[in-house]
Structure formats: C-alpha cells, structure tokens
Design a protein that fits this description.
Oligomer: single chain
Strand content: 15-25%
Helix content: 25-40%
Strand order of the largest sheet: 2-3-1-4
Order of helices and strands: EHEEHEHHEEH
Structural class: alpha+beta
Number of helices: 5
C-alpha cells in the first residue's frame, strides 16, 4: 500500500482583540503593481477605509510604495485576518480591472503582522512607515505621490471617494470616511482632557522621529553628493 503524504496545515495566526500591529504586504514578485497614480491611490484608499470601518479597525498610519505597503492599525474586534482577506481580494480585483489584465497583484506569501507592545514601539513604526520613501532615497515623506498618512494628522477625518473602476455604484457608497486615529487610545485609559494632551505629545514624538530620520538621509545623500531620485 503506498505511503500517504500528510496534508500540510497552514500555521494559524493568533489574533487577540485590542492588539496594535505593523502590517506589511508585498506585491507579486516585487513588481511595481501599486505604482502611484490617481486611480490606484483611490482604489487603495477606498478599500482601506471601507474595510477598516467594516471590521472596526483603528487606522493609525499607512504608506503604499510601488511594490509593498505598511499599515499600523489597532484590531479592536480581533478581525484582522478577515480585514486583510477582503482588502487584498478587493484591491486585487479592482487593480486587475484597472490594468485590464488578470495578473496576480499580491504576493502569495503571508502578510507580516508585528504585534506592537507599547506606545513607543507604535510611534517608532509610524515614523518608519511614513519615511519609507525617504529611506529608499525617493522623496521626502510629504512629497511622495502614493497613498501615505504623511499628508494627514492624527485625529483628522480621511474621506475616500468611490473609484470609477470595479466598485459597484449600487452596492458601494459614493464616499466613506475614517479618522486617522491617535495612538494613545490603543494603549491608555485616560480622561478626555488627558487624552488630548497625550495625543498631542504622541504626535510631537512621531514628528520629531520623522524629522530626525529625514535629516539623517539628507546628510547621507549630501555626503555622497547625491539627491533624492524623485517619485
């Protein structure tokens, strides 16, 4: 009797409500399949806001480069796997429709979800994702034309308009909005007044870390007599 090969079981991802994560996902073969453009940015933002609202995520930061993206989110309901499944599926179909071809958009490898254990770790990761284009020597954070939270401040309401491509006018709203959530709400139980102070302090810490990283890259480029490559 032939020996039976045991079925491979995928490793289950442990998810606990209330955890904050740095999410990273690459495109298929590291191709530039989410290269910034008005329509690509609209597709990614609409799906991010739509699915973030559906699954109760607090969105703290995001940055989409041409071949990968980073998110910092708090998963209030323990629905991160469902959020990622639907976000990746819908953006894949919408981008395929936009490009007019059926190539795989996202890498077949699992997305990375790093559990951020404290406020300091979360602040550092937001600074990290915002400065992604800078550390790649492309642009400074605010000059990146792709989808990035560098253009927004914590507490700001971000509105996404329904793209012209793929999304049904009958079943999808014309626009959706979500707050770029301040970080301390994920780690501290504070009064409203103390929360405002903590939010401002947290944003100032992130801003200082971003500026420090940008200055470091600027100095390195100047030393090598080079400049940012541009978008």
């Amino acid at each position: 009797m032939p020996k039976q090969t045991p079925h491979r079981r995928s490793r289950l991802r442990f998810v606990e409500p209330g955890n904050t994560y740095l999410i990273t996902k690459k495109t298929n073969d590291d191709l530039f399949l989410i290269r910034p453009s008005e329509e690509v940015n609209k597709i990614l933002l609409f799906a991010l806001v739509l699915k973030g609202l559906r699954y109760g995520l607090l969105v703290h930061g995001f940055c989409f480069l041409s071949n990968h993206f980073h998110l910092v989110v708090t998963d209030l309901l323990g629905e991160l796997p469902a959020f990622m499944r639907e976000f990746l599926t819908e953006t894949s179909k919408a981008l395929q429709a936009f490009y007019g071809e059926n190539r795989r958009i996202w890498s077949g490898k699992r997305y990375s979800a790093v559990h951020l254990l404290d406020l300091d770790a979360a602040q550092r990761k937001i600074a990290y994702l915002v400065t992604n284009p800078t550390r790649a020597e492309l642009t400074e954070p605010n000059d990146w034309p792709g989808l990035t939270s560098a253009h927004h401040k914590a507490g700001e309401l971000i509105t996404a308009e329904r793209p012209d491509t793929f999304f049904s006018k009958r079943y999808r709203p014309e626009s959706v909005s979500i707050e770029l959530s301040p970080l301390p709400s994920a780690f501290q139980d504070l009064s409203d007044k103390d929360q405002e102070i903590a939010n401002a302090e947290s944003q100032a810490t992130i801003d200082a870390q971003v500026e420090s990283e940008v200055e470091e890259v600027r100095a390195d480029l100047e030393k090598r007599k080079r400049s940012f490559l541009g978008a």
